[in-house]
Amino acid sequence: MSDQNPDALKLVRHFRQILLWPLQLQPIRSGAQIQEPWDILKRASADNPWSESRDEFSCDPAQFQERHYSEFVTFLPYVRSFLYGEGKAGSAMAAIESPIRVFRRTDVAKVRMTFPGAASDTITFDVAHADLCLFYDIDVAILIVEICGRDLSLARVQETMYRFGRAYPTYWREDNFGGHCLARAEWLARDGSVLAVSDYEQRERFLSFVGQHRAPYFASHWQFLLKPLVPDHGSEKGLIRYRQIEYSRMPLLAYLAMDNVRALSRADFVRLGSLHRNTFINSPAVLLPSLQVIGRKRLLLAGQLVGVEGYVESAATGLLAGLNAERLLHGVPPLSPPRTTALGSLLAYITQRGKKGFQPMNANYGLLPPLARPLRGRDKRLALAERALADLARWQASVQITGGEPARSQTVA
Fold first, then answer.
1. Could you tell me if residue 183 is inside a domain?
2. 138-153 and 11-25 strand pairing
3. pLDDT (tens digit per residue) in 45-68
4. What would the pLDDT profile of 214-242 be if each residue is shown by its tens digit?
5. Range of 336's domain?
6. Is 213 part of a structural domain of the chain?
7. What pLDDT was estimated at residue 398?
8. What is the domain-level CATH number for residue 323?
9. For residues 42 and 48, what is the distance between their CA atoms, to the nearest angstrom?
10. Predicted TM-score of the model (pTM)
11. Which of 18, 33, 149, 352 sits at a 20 to 30 Å CA gap from 385?
12. How far is the C-alpha of 140 from the C-alpha of 53, rounded, in Å?
């Protein structure tokens, strides 16, 4: 085993990825509480590839399979009722159907992915299924796409998980590829013919659409997959119109089967667990706790760019950077909150000089300095919070954060 190539040990024998793209549906009939878009999808037509998919309970009860039984009994009763509905419970009661309507299209058999880079290699995955879930009394649809492949390198699997579920680029690279996206994605029919192709590289198309509609343009191959549903922002006609709920990246689930899981490094596990690559600076080398750039102290940075994770953390650093920018304009020294507070400890982490292998971090109890006396569990967390609030109050009083224009002091270079 030790004589084998380490990369060969990281071969994914079986890979499955499931994308779940939630979309907001716009009202079809004004004033109606229940819109029933599934009635439109039930109508057979040349431009409607969807057909309703019945659940396992639609079969003869004598033909009910054990694998379906095992799935059913795994869920709690209220979850079973939501997923499957309920059978007739008495002579006066009718069966209750599930509030979910599932539609499936079977014309898309494969997806061919071309990855960016000098090699520009191409991999073709099977499309296990493409489903569209609609919900009674909730104007939401979820597109579910499951792909699968065999005998793939772990690196290529990670790239697939990272790049496949992108509704649109967030920027364009110098080689004109859409940022974080595949170089090319193609839906293929069973005979191998191309049904639709991505257009991530059409930079002007995305820019002009946002400029006109103040809404993102969805890549053409995703629009194709959802037809006859059409984007609400746009001129294309269609009864069922949708808007974005999530951001550019679609939520996903993944399954990987490998011969030797011990061949995975810690970095492999971390990347499989997070699979997002924020662009961030090496803050310990270039940033002060006040969020000023070392050597250029009138430049302040904040948010994910400095290596903090989370909306609250990003907003907090932005607030501090804005506050310090104002103070610098008035010739007042910048601020940095106490090390014992959530923000202060996070800033201490991202600006710890000499730190090797710096990676982004959320605010957490582990970053706070230890207490003077050892405590456990809830008592420890409560003591850390009380200490932080007390130190924060003293700090606020000492720096006179009371609102209004700060007192003028010596200019900071």
1. yes
2. antiparallel
3. 888 999 998 776 776 777 778 888
4. 999 999 999 999 999 999 998 898 889 99
5. 283-399
6. yes
7. 85
8. 3.50.50.60
9. 9
10. 0.65
11. 352
12. 18
For 266, the 3-state DSSP assignment is helix
CA atoms of 278 and 287, how far apart (whole Å): 17
Please identify, among 258, 275, 301, the residue that sits at the C-terminal boundary of a domain: 258
- Report helix, strand or coil for 294: coil
Q: Which are the contacts of 125, defined by CB distance < 8 A and separation ≥ 6?
A: 110, 111, 112, 113, 147, 148, 149, 160
As a whole number of angstroms, the distance between CA 307 and CA 348 comes to 12
Amino acid at 324: N
Tell me whether residue 274 is in a domain. Answer: no
Q: What φ, ψ does residue 25 adopt, rounded to 5°?
A: -90, 140
Element (H, E) at 408: none
Non-local (6+) Cβ contacts of 361 within 8 A are 307, 308, 309, 346, 349, 350, 367
Q: Is 307 contained in some domain?
A: yes
What single DSSP character describes residue 30? Answer: T
| SS3 of 227-262 | CCCEECCCCCCCCCEEEECCCCECCEEEEEEECCHH
CA 7 to chain centroid:
28
The structure tokens listed for 289 are 């706790």
Give the 3-state secondary structure of residue 374: coil
* Residues 162, 163, 169, 171, Cα dihedral to 10°: 60
